[in-house]
Amino acid sequence: QVQLVESGGGLVQPGGSLRLSCAASGSIFSFSTMGWYRQAPGKERELVATITVGGSTNYLDSVKGRFTISRDNAENTVNLQMSSLKPDDTAVYYCNGRRYSGIVIWGQGTQVTVSS
């Protein structure tokens, strides 16, 4: 079974940038849609951004214009470029892949902390 492994999280000051990467152990073409979700302490997990196999994207309203999701088919990675980060962006970020069968696979998560 394909596994997803996130990297790139860390501590950044408000206004800074981070790039998250999600590496799949197999081909990302096996997923109809891939995305990034986040979960802050005491809050429910929420969708941040998704990208389809055809390249269509969707974003949470609060990150539009600041975050960009992309996929590298050759490297089997899905990336999330985050800029103009705010303390409210602090959360554990999870990579997600939805198979054509409907099965959903999650990564283990990576912590993003935005603080001065």
Q: Can you offer a commentary on this structure?
A:
The chain is an all-beta fold. The chain is 0% helix and 53% strand. Strands 2, 4, 5, 6, 9, 10 and 11 form a 7-stranded mixed sheet that branches. A 4-stranded antiparallel sheet has the order 1-3-8-7, with no helix packed on it. The chain is globular. The termini are far apart.
Ends distance? 40 Å
Low-confidence runs of at least 5 consecutive residues: none
Helix fraction?
under 10%
Order of helices and strands: EEEEEEEEEEE
How much of the sequence is in beta strands? over 45%
Number of strands: 11
Biggest beta sheet summary: 7 strands, mixed
**What form results from the Cα inertia axes?**
globular
Structural class comes to mainly beta
- How large, in whole angstroms, is the Cα Rg? 13 Å
Give a brief outline of the structure.
By secondary structure, the protein is mainly beta. 0% of the residues lie in helices and 53% in strands.
Question: Layout of helices and strands, plus pairs?
Answer:
Blueprint: E1 4-7, E2 10-12, E3 18-24, E4 31-39, E5 46-52, E6 57-59, E7 67-72, E8 77-82, E9 91-99, E10 104-106, E11 110-114
Parallel strand pairs: 2-11
Antiparallel strand pairs: 1-3, 3-8, 4-5, 4-9, 5-6, 7-8, 9-10, 9-11
Give keywords.
four-stranded antiparallel β-sheet; mainly beta; seven-stranded mixed β-sheet; 11 strands; 116 residues; single chain
